[in-house]
Design brief:
Blueprint lengths: L1 E2 H32 L15 E14 L3 H18 L7 H14 L5 H4 L7 H16 L3 E5 L2 H9 L4 E8 L3 E4 L6 E4 L1
Antiparallel strand pairs: 1-3, 2-3, 2-4, 5-6
Helix pairs in contact: 2-3, 2-5
């Protein structure tokens, strides 16, 4: 069983690594051309992967909650922001976020507002904070999929398999600026 988001990310990462390997090889060939008098005036070959279409037969197995570490990071960031706005101790955010991530992971979210620190907030504000945290905890959910041939064949026979088409398009990044203001921008 895989998470669909992890599967798509792995394919994208492999395409980026393939492009990087191709660029490194182009640089090596360019240096070889420079050293060979007969090739010195020719442009070095470079492969550009403008677009890749990937067709995946798969079976959707159902929804998956987001990873607890992602939930904890999102909640800690939000709690730091909220506590800072209440002039409260922001060091409470990380341990509370870990505890809340575990609560969300168990699906036991009824009393989340009671777990928040007493910083003089009104019940309505605490309810809003709890609602925002629930949204953050559910964001990042994915779909469990199976891609193994036997599972896909069995699901195809039952009419439960699907084919997903993914189109990846290359867009390069270039460095712009200098010093501390240097950043990557689209080509």
């Amino acid at each position: 069983m895989l998470r669909l988001d992890e599967l798509v990310a792995a394919i994208a990462e492999d395409l980026v690594r393939a492009r990087a390997a191709s660029d490194l090889e182009s640089a090596r060939v360019a240096l070889a051309y420079e050293e060979e008098p007969l090739l010195a005036g020719l442009p070095a070959p470079r492969v550009r992967l403008e677009e890749a279409l990937v067709e995946l037969p798969l079976v959707a197995l159902g929804p998956l909650p987001p990873p607890a570490s992602l939930v904890a990071r999102s909640l800690a960031e939000y709690l730091r922001y909220w506590l800072r706005g209440r002039s409260a101790d922001v060091s409470l955010a990380a341990p509370l976020a870990e505890e809340l991530a575990a609560v969300y992971g168990r699906g036991d979210v009824k009393d989340v507002a009671r777990m928040l620190p007493d910083v003089g907030a009104e019940p309505a504000e605490l309810a809003q904070v709890a609602a925002t945290m629930r949204f953050l905890a559910e964001r990042g959910a994915s779909v469990a999929v199976a891609v193994e041939t036997a599972e896909v064949r069995g699901a195809t026979a039952a009419g439960a398999a699907m084919r997903v088409s993914l189109k990846f398009r290359e867009e390069g990044l270039s460095w712009a600026g200098s010093g501390a203001g240097r950043r990557l921008v689209p080509e």
